Amino acid sequence: MTTKRHIWRLLLLLSTFTFHPSRFRRKAVAIAVTGFWLGFGGQASLLLAQPSLLINYQGRLTDGTNLVNSTVGLSLRLYNAESGGVLLYEDSNTVTVVDGLYNTFIGDQSANTNTLVRALLETNVHLEVVVDGVPLSPREPLAAVPYALATRDLMLTPLWNMTAFPGRNTLRNDEFGFFGSTIAGGSGNHIVQSADSVIAGGRNNVISNFANIAFIGSGFRNFIDPGANSSVIVGGENNRMRNGSEYSAIGGGRANVIDPGSVYSTIPGGIFNRVGTNALASMAAGYGAEAVHSGSFVWSDIAGPGVMRTTADNQFLIRAAGGMGIGMAPSNAPGAVLSIRGRGEHSEWIALANTNAVNRWHLNGRSNGFNIAETGVSDARIFIRPGGNVGIGTDNPTNRLHVIGNVQATAFVTSSDRNTKENIQPVEPSAILEKVMALPISTWTFREEPSGTHIGPMAQDFHAVFGFGNTETGIMTVDADGVALAAIQALAAENARLREELEAIKQKLGL
């Protein structure tokens, strides 16, 4: 074996990049830059221009002083040391040697492509040539061009880790076996033990252990804590995604926190906002908003005082001192705590549904009034007309309260305060009694209530006889009561006169 080592001597060209460093170094730089822009640009049509996964290798083989002309088995081995060390990659081929010259490739064994790329990422890589099973020495250090291949795959293949400005940023993944993470720029940024995570820039941002597929866009002192997988902090300052707050996002702002275990939660921005521990799918925004329960949304303005905090699951809380508008035109400011702009022919404002999601009631602006309607059944269940008249069962109330149908109550109190009245004139009860005696009295039923029989005068007759009230289609209860009382007084006076006459007759008869 020793004799054979001396017989076989390899005069290596070590590929063209060894003998022509300046020319091929320029090519290596060009390839690396191309890989960089294509990797971040994401245009599939340009990826075809990427360099091959193969490294061209040429050599000159002699046997003593004779040039070799034969076919030999050639193995190319990559080690991390000049002697000894760890075998990083091996590529074996059969090559034809003509006048001592041969040409082959490193990396044409597709099954080992990823291993080759990983090998080329080592700080020191040395090539050992083995001819027909005999290792030749010395090993040759690889120069710059193969690293262009490493740069290419580092940009386009999310298997490895990459740090821009490694002197200013820290990415500790390789030592723990985590891959696919990138720190693209900035300074003082840190990723440790987190796969496929990215810090795009900024300063002093941190993605901690096992926060896989996490992202910090920029900003200052933003933290994604351990186990906050698939979480995002876009930017801002001193924002924090706590342990286990998976699939959550902070859009920016300052001093916003999503507490541990708050999955699927969001803080779009603002300052001093918080999503509480284990608050599932909640959102807080504005100033001092705290969604500390699941399924909640809190918006807080800057007016204060104090924080705006949920008290139970599935709450929607808004604090807006300047008012809240729904459907308002861009130029319209809310005129109250809540202002709603309607839509449609009758300015629909609010629809109220039952637990089965069936609309039962709606509020709208029918006939320019305020209409409470039973959806799909009837309008004007309650209607307030401009000017203040209220209708129940009618959208044309003619009095302060106008009811279509019966009214039942424990008692009715009719205002009769002397201080509320004027033009007070006495009446002659006997004259009222005579008119009552002339007033037609009937029994009847209402058309809208055919099952109930009633007794009394017609409103038109009452108005014609007495002239009281302000309508011919209704009788005010105060007028009916007054007529009845006057008639009773007349009857009482007549009854007293008859008693006096009866007593006089008894005295004349000695009774």
SSE arrangement:
Layout: H1 2-7, E1 8-12, H2 15-19, H3 21-41, E2 55-63, E3 66-67, E4 70-79, E5 87-97, E6 101-106, H4 113-120, E7 126-131, E8 134-135, E9 140-141, H5 145-156, E10 162-163, E11 170-172, E12 182-183, E13 190-192, E14 198-199, E15 206-207, E16 215-216, E17 223-224, E18 232-233, E19 240-241, E20 249-250, E21 257-258, E22 266-267, E23 274-275, E24 283-286, E25 289-291, E26 297-300, E27 308-309, E28 316-319, E29 324-326, E30 338-340, E31 350-353, E32 359-364, E33 370-374, E34 378-384, E35 390-392, E36 401-403, H6 429-438, E37 442-446, E38 449-456, H7 459-466, H8 477-508
Parallel strand pairs: 10-12, 11-13, 12-14, 13-15, 14-16, 15-17, 16-18, 17-19, 18-20, 19-21, 20-22, 21-23, 23-25, 24-26, 25-27, 26-28, 29-30, 35-36
Antiparallel strand pairs: 1-2, 2-3, 2-6, 4-5, 4-7, 7-8, 7-9, 31-32, 32-33, 33-34, 34-35, 37-38
Describe the structure.
The chain is of the alpha/beta class and 511 residues long. Among the domains are: 2-156, Sandwich (Immunoglobulin-like); 427-496, no CATH class. The protein is built from 8 helices and 38 strands. The chain has a 9-stranded parallel sheet, with no helix packed on it. Helix 3 (21-41) packs parallel to helix 5 (145-156) and helix 6 (429-438) crosses helix 8. It is rod-shaped, with a radius of gyration of 48 Å.
